[in-house]
Specification:
The chain has two domains: about 60 residues, no CATH class; about 290 residues, Deoxyribonuclease I, Chain A (4-Layer Sandwich). The chain is about 25% helix and about 20% strand. The strands form four sheets. The chain has a six-stranded mixed β-sheet with strand order 3-4-2-1-15-14, covered by helices on one side. A five-stranded mixed β-sheet has the order 9-10-11-13-12. The protein has a two-stranded antiparallel ribbon with strand order 5-8. Helix 4 crosses helix 5 and helix 7 runs parallel beside helix 8.
């Protein structure tokens, strides 16, 4: 972990843990131990039990929230809570022999304190269907679930290789039955990479454009209203290509995902379809407009005046979205959708200077909507 200077730490991280404040105020011989004033180092070096640090994690979420709302909206009786959440680099401690060089994962274990913070947010939300990005593998997700969420009823799980060189996937944990899932690894999207990336040469210039990370498509068997049969909700869980100058790539990905969604509606005209995840773009960007022009609707389209309450990323942007077709909109309680805020770095602190701290979960925040059998 990169550390802040002690004086800055005492000002900006106040409220995280009493050990931090004490260490700043009362030097002692034991401070020669670098772990003495660092609750993160203490948590990572001692026998690990979530209860040992839970108070600090909750305190950080409550005192260091910059975006989203502080507490989840109540879940109505009979509703199914759907969540999109990029939990940032959920890697386990098992070396993947297929990853090497710049993508070597042997040191990429998501720290214990971060895993606790992610799980605390998930529990607080009480998600029924959790659609996640940046998952290393099915095995890593099962390990995380069993470690922290074993009593949450997530009996259904899908995580498939997305074809990403870094080894991250899209995944779903659910209390409701899921189909086997489908991905399109390496699917060509049309066109070639341009010569320049901004003003610099593009390393992929001239190569055919394909999904950077394939979306994951799963069908969920949703509970019907009393006396009615279950119904199917089709999800596309996606994580678009990042990068300021990769807008052309995101646009190509968006066009293909729309095409794949249209193939479902061609076969099932009344099917409810939701596309959700990390778009790495805002609703004003062309890659998102492609979805909007194709009939998918933004959950917060009429709530732009809520400002920081609906921001989904530490960079002050709303890039994690839930987009729904007309059939799906008939099942969503849009007015009570929300973004749950978790602990964020102070605005003046760059992630390069502070890569983690006690209570930190992810640089993204969960986006939440409740789904009902019918709005009628």
């Amino acid at each position: 972990m990169r550390h802040l200077p002690l004086a800055i730490k005492s000002l900006t991280l106040i409220g995280l843990a009493s050990t931090t404040i004490i260490a700043c105020a009362a030097p002692s011989a034991s401070m020669n131990d670098p772990k003495h004033d660092d609750p993160v180092a203490q948590a990572e070096s001692h026998p690990q039990d979530a209860s040992d640090i839970m108070a600090d994690v909750v305190n950080a979420r409550e005192t260091m929230r910059r975006y989203g709302i502080a507490e989840p909206n109540p879940k109505p009786a009979g509703a199914v809570r759907l969540v999109a959440y990029n939990i940032e680099n959920l890697f386990d401690d098992v070396d993947d022999p297929t990853l090497s060089d710049r993508n070597e994962d042997i040191d990429d274990l998501k720290p214990f304190h971060q895993r606790v913070a992610v799980a605390e947010a998930i529990r607080l939300i009480d998600a029924d269907i959790l659609c996640m990005q940046e998952i290393e593998s099915l095995e890593a997700l099962e390990w995380f679930r069993d470690e922290f969420l074993g009593d949450m009823g997530y009996d259904y799980i899908v995580s498939l290789d997305a074809g990403n060189a870094r080894g991250i996937e899209n995944a779903v944990l659910s209390r409701y039955p899921l189909s086997e899932g489908k991905v399109w690894v390496g699917k060509l999207l049309g066109g070639i990479h341009p010569e320049l990336y901004g003003t610099r040469p593009n390393r992929q210039a001239g190569e055919k454009i394909a999904f950077r990370r394939s979306p994951l498509q799963v069908d969920v068997q949703m509970p019907g209203a009393e006396g009615q049969d279950p119904w199917t909700l089709s999800l596309f869980v996606e994580h678009h290509k990042s990068g300021r100058y990769n807008s052309y790539w995101r646009e190509a990905e968006a066009k293909m995902i729309v095409q794949l969604a249209n193939e479902i509606t061609d076969e099932h005209p009344d099917r409810a379809i939701i596309i959700l995840g990390d778009f790495n773009a805002q609703v004003t960007d062309e890659s998102v407009k492609i979805y909007l022009r194709s009939g998918f609707q933004d959950l917060f389209a009429n709530r732009s005046d809520e400002g920081a309450a609906i921001v989904t990323h530490e960079s002050s942007r709303r890039i994690d979205l839930i987009l729904s077709n007309d059939a799906a909109m008939g099942h969503l309680l849009v007015d009570q959708a929300f973004v749950l805020g978790t602990a964020a770095r102070p605005a003046e602190i760059n992630w390069r200077d502070l890569d983690t701290f006690m209570g930190y979960a992810s640089d993204h925040y969960p986006v939440v909507v409740d789904v009902v059998p019918s709005l009628e």
